[in-house]
Amino acid sequence: MDGALRPVLVVSVAVAFSLIAGWVVDRSLRRVDARHPETPLWHLLRRCGIPLQVVILSAILRGGYRSAHFADAHAADIGQVLVLVLIGASAWLVIRVAAAVIDSSYARYAAISHDVPKIRRLRTQLTLIQRVFTAVVMVIAVASMLFTFPAMRTVGASVLASAGIIGIVAGVAAQSTLANLFAGLQIAFGDMVRIGDTVVVEGEWGVVEEITLTFLSVRTWDERRITMPVSYFTSKPFENWSRGDPRMTGTVFFHLDHSTPVDAMRKRLLEILEQADEWDRRAWGLVVIDTTPTTIQIRALATAKNADDIFNLRCIVREQLIDWLRCEHPYALPRINTAAAPGRRDEGQDRGRAPMPDSKDLGPGPGAR
Questions:
Q1: Does residue 54 lie within any of the structural domains?
Q2: What phi and psi values does residue 67 have, to the nearest 5 degrees?
């Protein structure tokens, strides 16, 4: 009976101790968080409660499973499983702690800084650093699990002995993957593109939504996602509308008739801009930039604080100016002339020509009898 109760007692003590330890740690973090609300680190560390309890539970069971006589015939297998669980839980805990520290650092910097480009750059860098750290921890955890098996230790020694050859073969086989990996690090620390930047890639306008070590996701204006390898952004040109100063200048082009009242159109443009919240009042203008035998080309110019506002402002200017021309000056809209317009020029041309004789003044034709 004592042999049957001992395993139950050990498991109960381990579970109870892990639950109590997790509760104590959570209460302590909650109190510290209440004293320091300006630091989100303590609140974020509360996410580590479950992996911490698993680590404590597996460590206690690993240390006391032999004295509890857990199925003596399978004691080695049980110990091996507990070691694997302990390694996996430890890696889980380390990743959670690192994520809490990184998120806390970003939140504190974003709260005190008003420089949007620097905030985006820090967010991109911390995101990639977190992904690299997570990958390294997982690789170390998996390697540690494998090396707990006696057979794998011999294999590991031979693998380490031939690491140079394997590295060369892996480098050749994964050339594109490694290129994307280094490109991701270059993007993170080269500050060429950041999460939240407005970019134009392959003729598509969108916002950078996610950056990983191998790919980059762009969310277009119509909610589509364009996924591209990060090596694209280090090898080909692209437009980044958010790099540096986010303020932009937008233009709207009109093809109109030569009789268009340009001065009145310029005044109407100013009225439209003064009523638009998107205009930042830095600059505006309306000029004739080109002419053809049938139309003139007019360019309306306005400024805004970012790419989203400049797009909306261009649409407002285009829509309201066309509506104003249609209602107030319809003759200014382009049209196709199918006949010569009557006017003084035709009279002048007729004045320079000899008058055509009337048919009554003409004598009989050659064929008349």
A1: yes
A2: -70, -20
Would you say 210 and 216 are in contact if contact means Cβ atoms under 8 Å apart?
yes
Q: How far is CA 9 from the centre of its chain?
A: 53
Q: Terminal CA-to-CA distance of the chain, rounded, Å?
A: 150
Element of type H or E holding 199: strand 198-201
**Could you report the per-residue pLDDT of 301-324, keeping only the tens digit for each?**
999 988 888 989 999 999 999 999
Predicted pLDDT at 181: 64
CA dihedral of residues 313, 319, 320, 324 (deg, nearest 10): 150
- Among residues 112, 134, 169, the one where a domain terminates is 112
Phi, psi for residue 342 in degrees, rounded to 5: -70, 150
Q: What residues contact residue 95 under an 8 Å CB cut-off, 6+ apart? A: 133, 134, 137, 138
Residue 89 lies in a domain: yes
**How many structural domains is the chain composed of?**
2
How far apart CA 111 and CA 38 sit, in angstroms, is 9
Instruction: Say if residue 364's pLDDT is above 50.
Output: no
Q: Determine, yes or no, domain membership for 174.
A: no
Distance CA 198, CA 271 (A): 29
Lowest mean pLDDT among 85-89, 184-188, 280-284: 184-188
Compute the distance between CA of residue 187 and CA of residue 211 in angstroms, rounded to an integer. 9
- The whole-angstrom separation of Cα 284 and Cα 280 is 10
CA–CA distance from 177 to each of 135, 174, 212, 214, 231 (Å)?
Answer: 15, 5, 12, 7, 9
**Domain range holding 8?**
2-112
Q: Residues 328-339: what's their mean pLDDT?
A: 80
3-state secondary structure of 201: strand
Q: What is the dihedral of CA 187, 191, 192, 196, to 10 degrees?
A: 90
Whichever domain contains 261, its CATH number is 3.30.70.100
Global pTM value:
0.51
Q: Is residue 182 part of a domain?
A: no
Contact 35, 43 (CB under 8 A): no
